[in-house]
## 1
Amino acid sequence: MNYASQVVGVSIAKGPTIMLASGRWFDLLDPHGSDFAIEDVAHGLSLVCRYAGQCHSYFSVAEHSLLVSSVAETFKYEALLHDAAEAFIGDITRPLKQLLPEYKRIEALVEDAVIERFEMNPDYRSIVKAADLRVLAAEQAQIMPRGCADWAAEAGIEPADVVVRSLSPSEAEREFLDQYRLLKSLR
């Protein structure tokens, strides 16, 4: 590993890896073999801003995940973790993601590793997606420019009854971890 790689917290000795805030290494091409914990997920998600930062106030993926978990009728644990991969690969806007097929492949690998690591029920996707869309509509109506959430009414999606609080990263991280521990204890 060369000095420049060490300075930016990136290593390509094994594969393209990043150093996590915990000091663990995460290999983007071997996420199953990477050492990561829920604290890494919570920390990363609390610092990633939704909507490429183009919202009226800071709004983290961790807070979004808390909202989706609160709205999901079942699979609340999986709903909390549904965007956990973004702790390692960031939150890419949907239009840009469509232009990056390799990113989508890597995202799927990381998502699979998260599902395995946290023993998520793989049947969660359709239920959590419905909750995610309802939360998305509510978020956009609250923190995005006027008209951004018009798609929801056209698609027949009723916005969730949630309030975006714009938690600070430390608040979002703490609440995410608290909710994770609670939901894990109920399994």
Note: The first strand starts at residue 10 and ends at 11.
## 2
Amino acid sequence: MLHPRLLALVLFAGTAFAQDANYKLVLEENFDGNKLDSEIWEVRSGAKQRGSFTDEAVELKDGLLTITTWTDNKVDFSGSIKMRKAKYFDFRQGKVEGRLRFNPTKGVTAVFGNDTDEDATKEKQVKIDIFVSFGYEKGGAYMTGVTWNTPGKPAEKKELNQRNLTSVGKFWHTYGVEWDSAGYRFTMDGKLRMTVKSSDGIDARRGIELASPLAAGESAASRVGYGSKEKSKAIYEVDWVKAWKYVPPTK
């Protein structure tokens, strides 16, 4: 349950992103070709929660980024990519959108958000969840939200999130977030789903994370495994991601 003061920061409306001619496209990733652009993306690897991230889970095929979760010799494997720090957005007003779909599977999560600097120990961090879908939701809901975190000061952590009750499983949808000095506005297919007013200012660092981690809270759900990679139905697909920077009009 949200603290009343934090709950007051969350507003709802029915409008889409403002179509402003001053938004400049700074990233358009259509995942064409047969491998990721290594200048923009890096693939994570190693142990993560209940299983392991591996580059074998991440593939480009037919213009789609595909992340597959499977089981081999009782070990669960999945994948994650994140934007390289050199490509982080350095602007304080902009927006990010992505078109994606996820086959809901118990124990598996689909994530589309910003990539926080996990190695930072001094700077304040802002984690943005544009789309998070948990397998146990069976495609009937997804989560959006913002988390403010000061490393070393857990008492200062603030989190606002919302469970959006709408059908997302197996269907293509476009999810996005727009941010400026006023806060964050989350959309699905151009419709505003959640607005968060920012009392802490806006973190200028922005990256993109696309991942399909194994959910620690559903450890009992996948004990039978997901099958081989070729037969697994635990698939997360991304058609494209785009980012825009707001450029003020010249006076």
Note: The chain has one helix and 19 strands.
## 3
Amino acid sequence: MRVLVFASICYLVLPAQIRQDADPAVKRAISKLQGSWQVESQEENGKKLGADELKRRTICFGQNLFLIRDNAKMVQLGKLKIDPSKSPKTINTIVEKGVHEGDILPGIYELEGDTLKICLNSEGDTRPKEFKSEPKSGLTLIVCKRVPSKSAEEDLSGSYKSESIDSVGNKFRYDATIERIGDAYLVVYRVQGKVIYFGTGLRQGDVFAMCWASPGQGTGITLYQIEKGPRLVGRFTELGGPGFLGTETMTRVINDI
């Protein structure tokens, strides 16, 4: 019963995850923010946060959600809306929990390599024009550095061809996409554009583990070895099943855009 409930919930949530933003430029810009960032400096009304507090503060972006933490303590949680076509690029943070809960903070942002700058107006509706925070300005300026991956391997995001053989010898071929979502990955399998399976995966070194679901067809887990390409070679089984293993190989599409 729990497995069926899990699959049903995932099915309802999936369309929103796949859609993200209809504008391809916005989707690409959001994808560049995904993951965890260490706050290196923060000024509020021209006053800088202390070094000890900065060491504890991180920002994580997952799809269009953001989470600011002080160690394990939540400081702020909400959604963001960006427009990379503006100059400077604009950002609105819709705060759902924590400091400034219920407010929409207009701002601007700049991403250069692994450095992210965000300037927000936390006391008004006027959008900042430059990356500065002066006394009584109501502006907060944050400078972050991307938290590097524990693995030196390239990002797994991209398009793949999946070939699998189940425990009784049936063969299947799918078009698959792997997309970075926060510090994890969203994996979607399709046949002629129709979603067949989807899952969430975590990477550690050259190992990739994924929990997947398909409404009416059960749920399962797959454990992959990551090879050059990248190419993922895995073994899978169904949750709650007899424990029989199938095999799958995911090969990156060379002309992936």
Note: Helices lie at 2-19, 24-33, 51-56.
## 4
Amino acid sequence: MRGMALMLVALLAGTAVASAQRPRVRPEIRPYAGALIPTGDLRNFFHDAPMVGVQAAVELKPSLHLVGAFGWVAAQNRFPVAQDNVNVFKYDVGMELGLVRSLGGAWELRPFIGAGIGGRTYDYQAASLATKTCTSGYGAVGTEFQIARTALRLEARHNVFCYRSPITSGSSQTRSDIGLTFGVAYHLR
């Protein structure tokens, strides 16, 4: 009985210590703008295009973030159709791992790497081209320059995704592009 009581006290004490060490979760909102640059065979079908979007992040530790993102690309395709506009919608979730270095004063440098998975939808405006959705993944590198709750953010993403032709109903092919963005990160707490 005495051994059970000691184990219970030790368990409760361990739980109290673990909860005291739990990191403070800090939500962030990150609007961005940039460009999407098709690579490889995808350049045969699309031009470089502007991109805007927003990320929502949760800082689990200063060096670890959980990230969700939504982006819109106003692209033009190279298919032989009169209406060549296409809306590309990108959505994903991922993780970022980084460092925090003081730059002096209140400024911090926060370089990071990240990875995630998600989806991508191509919504063609030409009636003869079918809307297609497929899975995607990404790897990212970037940095933030932070002062207080606000940071300037630069990010480069290499996106890899399956692509289905809007003309044929054939199988999907693996394609990639590069996303370059500049944004602001605002830490809500």
Note: Confidence is low (pLDDT under 50) at residues 4-20.
